[in-house]
Amino acid sequence: MEIRYANHPEDSKKYNTGELRDHYLVEKVFEANEVKLTYSHVDRIIFGGAMPVDKELTLEAGKEMGVEYFLERREMGIINIGGEGIVTLDGIEYELNSKDGLYIGMGTKEIKFATKNAENPAKFYINSVPAHHSYETVKININEANPVKLGDNATLNKRTIYQYVHPNVCKSCQLLMGLTMLEPSNAWNTMPCHTHERRMEVYFYFDMVEDTRIFHLMGEVDETRHLVVKNEEAIISPSWSIHSGFGTSNYTFIWGMCGENQTFNDMDAVSMANLK
């Protein structure tokens, strides 16, 4: 498990491109037959990918967590972005097709990942955050997620936000998770942008062709930075940072949030006049 420490915004202003990427970008989320995770000290979110190809993978709690099993004091959300797969929780199997999701409550002891077809392996994208209560495990496919349609073609940001782990869909302690799909010929997400002081966020970009790139915007409102992101890479977005992006084509991203509350619309809007 890779560890990423929290960074003060004043320090981040001094980072060059390489340093920004080292602190905020995770370039390798999926590796064949591995569980790859990153532990961020920003609200102690753990995120990453499990990609079983020709063997079953088991999620283990490393020494970084100091517990007997991974979800002893945590909850988890999963969205499969690959082929058909199976997640087994304490002996109970859940089949997840592409873009199917799963909320897993605190206290689940054994978590295993498997693929149905090694030629088209499952890719289970994971978000896990600290929890204080055990809620029911719920499978959520994209048709059961709560859709929110925003934007239009004139501003290049026509998109649908699918809320998977959200109070409108299932109960969780603090995790919010879902995916946003931009329509063809649309490239902006979240502009005008915002911050949310009470919650951090992790972005995971996917459904991109090889030569497509995202210019992910971050930094404080009056001194922004950008990171160039390719397919299946993730960004840590602290509460003080804007989080927005523009792509060379349309794309999809999974967002995961944790922090003080679960109010999805609790954000501090940024006026275009103040953006620098």
From TrEMBL:
Pathway(s) per entry: Glycan metabolism; pectin degradation; 2-dehydro-3-deoxy-D-gluconate from pectin: step 4/5
Protein name per UniProt: 4-deoxy-L-threo-5-hexosulose-uronate ketol-isomerase
The gene coding this protein: kduI
Membership in a protein family: Belongs to the KduI family.
Catalytic EC class: isomerase
Superkingdom of the source species: Bacteria
Organism: Clostridium gasigenes
GO terms of biological process kind: D-galacturonate catabolic process; D-glucuronate catabolic process; pectin catabolic process
Sequence positions that bind Zn(2+): H194, H196, E201, H243
Catalytic activity: 5-dehydro-4-deoxy-D-glucuronate = 3-deoxy-D-glycero-2,5-hexodiulosonate
Function: Catalyzes the isomerization of 5-dehydro-4-deoxy-D-glucuronate to 3-deoxy-D-glycero-2,5-hexodiulosonate.
